[in-house]
């Protein structure tokens, strides 16, 4: 590529990274606010999370268009091509994370008698870890940091442990208090959505590792 083309390519990549960062910031905020709305029963806050998801969707569409344009006009190769492909995949995953937060927000009005549910005291901590995973993995993407990406992957074990604890707690409560089954089931869905956010952050971390090194991270269970 000549100097002009290289400069234009660098500008496009910077724009691509900026869009991913903006998507991630909005997704991170939606995780936090959807859980705050669930804890407090705040319908207005939940409505804001649902509305924000449209902005995340619009940014994903913008990433798709820019990535296709970069590939068509710049014909990137090797490291540059991996970065563009990774950005495409990451945008799709972050969009799904936004969807999970929206799903949590939509369940706010379905939970009654909040003060009786002990899992509501665990969900914020679980959500905080998931939100940190999203924040850290996008930091790893921006800085092409495979070490931080592997740390994000390792953190998913904590989210899974929270999910298992909340699942056992809620099921026991449902058995002892059948009248609360409807609301308790909503909390199980919320915990499951957070667990899936952790899984998606892990998927992004694997893509970031690939984009930075050309290899997927080693399987720690292998």
From TrEMBL:
The keyword Cytoplasm applies. Homodimer. Belongs to the PhoU family. Transmembrane segments: none annotated. It comes from Pontixanthobacter aestiaquae. One of its GO terms (biological process) is phosphate ion transport. Keywords: Cytoplasm, Phosphate transport, Transport. Plays a role in the regulation of phosphate uptake. Gene3D superfamilies: Phosphate transport system protein phou homolog 2, domain 2 (1.20.58.220). It is found in: Cytoplasm. One of its GO terms (cellular component) is cytoplasm. This is Phosphate-specific transport system accessory protein PhoU. Pfam families: PhoU. Residues 20-108, 125-208 form the PhoU domain. It comes from the Bacteria.
């Amino acid at each position: 590529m000549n100097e002009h083309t290289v400069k234009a390519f660098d500008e496009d990549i910077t724009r691509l990274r900026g869009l991913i960062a903006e998507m991630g910031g909005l997704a991170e905020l939606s995780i936090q606010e959807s859980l705050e709305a669930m804890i407090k029963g705040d319908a207005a806050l939940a409505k804001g999370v649902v509305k924000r998801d449209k902005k995340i969707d619009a940014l994903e569409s913008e990433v798709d268009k820019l990535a296709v344009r970069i590939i068509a006009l710049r014909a990137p190769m090797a490291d540059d091509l991996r970065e563009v492909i990774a950005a495409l995949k990451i945008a799709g995953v972050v969009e799904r994370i936004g969807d999970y937060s929206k799903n949590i927000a939509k369940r706010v009005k379905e939970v009654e008698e909040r003060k009786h549910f002990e899992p509501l005291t665990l969900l914020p901590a679980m959500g905080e870890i998931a939100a940190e995973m999203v924040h850290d993995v996008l930091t790893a993407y921006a800085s092409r940091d495979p070490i931080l990406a592997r740390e994000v992957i390792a953190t998913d074990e904590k989210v899974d442990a929270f999910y298992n604890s909340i699942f056992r707690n809620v099921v026991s409560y449902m058995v002892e208090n059948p009248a609360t089954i409807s609301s308790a089931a909503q909390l199980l869905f919320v915990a499951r959505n957070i667990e899936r956010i952790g899984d998606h952050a892990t998927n992004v971390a694997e893509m970031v590792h690939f984009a930075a090194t050309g290899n997927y991270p080693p399987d720690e269970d292998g």
